[in-house]
């Protein structure tokens, strides 16, 4: 079987600019990080495809978003140009995670094997639910949905690029 070559990204998305707010260059930012405290005055973020550096001047909560004023964005027109752009940090600035926690890019592309030695495929993407994440695996059985819970996910070995799982009854179709 061909080995899928996984690559670590150079940047992590931490937010997305939803819209301009007011006339002084503030923008509404949708938070896409578990560490919103990285949005502080003086913090540097990279914006858009060109990864232009912007420095946060002020930040304040607004509904389920943040209102951010970047030093380089001085009016509503400039803020409107940023609508839809993603905000990034270099991968080197990724905050450390607790044991048994992983960034999405570390999980996607892992080979998935059962504790009985059956190859299930490769993690294609992750579904985020209120209760737990669900890893979507594509392989010989087609699409397999694996809840990211301790009873199912037994081991994640990033070095070996492999996940070992235990299939609880009902997780996969047993019909031929």
Order of helices and strands: EEEEEHEHEEEEEE
Mean pLDDT: 91
Q: Tell me, what is the CATH class of the largest domain?
A: Mainly Beta
Beta content comes to: 35-45%
The domain count comes to 2
The computed structural class is mainly beta
- Looking at how many chains there are and whether they match, the oligomeric state comes to single chain
The order of strands across the largest sheet is: 1-2-5-4-3-6
The number of helical elements comes to 2
Helix residue percentage: under 10%
Radius of gyration over C-alpha positions, nearest whole angstrom: 20 Å
User: What is the level-2 CATH architecture name of the largest domain?
Assistant: Beta Barrel
**Which consecutive residue ranges, at least 5 long each, have pLDDT under 50?**
none
Largest sheet descriptor: 6 strands, antiparallel, barrel
Distance between the termini: 22 Å
What is the CATH fold-level name of the largest domain?
A: Elongation Factor Tu (Ef-tu), domain 3
Give the tally of β-strands.
Answer: 12
The coarse silhouette is: elongated
Instruction: State the fourth-level CATH superfamily of the largest domain.
Output: RimM
Considering the chains and any ligands shown, give keywords for the structure.
six-stranded mixed sheet; 176 residues; 2 domains; SH3 type barrels; six-stranded antiparallel beta barrel; 12 strands; 2 helices; Elongation Factor Tu (Ef-tu), domain 3; mainly beta
């Amino acid at each position: 079987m061909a080995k899928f070559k996984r690559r670590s990204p150079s940047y992590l998305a931490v937010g997305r600019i939803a819209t301009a707010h007011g006339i002084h260059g503030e923008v509404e930012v949708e938070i896409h990080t578990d560490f919103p405290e990285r949005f502080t005055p003086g913090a540097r973020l990279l914006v858009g495809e060109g990864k232009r550096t912007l420095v946060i001047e002020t930040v304040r909560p607004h509904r389920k978003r943040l209102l951010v004023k970047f030093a380089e964005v001085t009016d509503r027109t400039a803020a409107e140009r940023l609508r839809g752009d993603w905000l990034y940090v270099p991968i080197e600035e990724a905050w450390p995670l607790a044991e048994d926690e992983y960034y999405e890019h570390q999980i996607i592309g892992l080979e998935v094997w059962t504790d009985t030695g059956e190859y299930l495929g490769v993690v294609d993407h992750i579904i985020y639910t209120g209760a737990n994440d669900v890893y979507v695996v594509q392989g010989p059985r087609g699409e397999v949905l694996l809840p990211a819970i301790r009873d199912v996910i037994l081991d994640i070995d990033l070095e070996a690029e492999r996940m070992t799982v235990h299939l609880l009854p009902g997780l996969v179709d047993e019909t031929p």
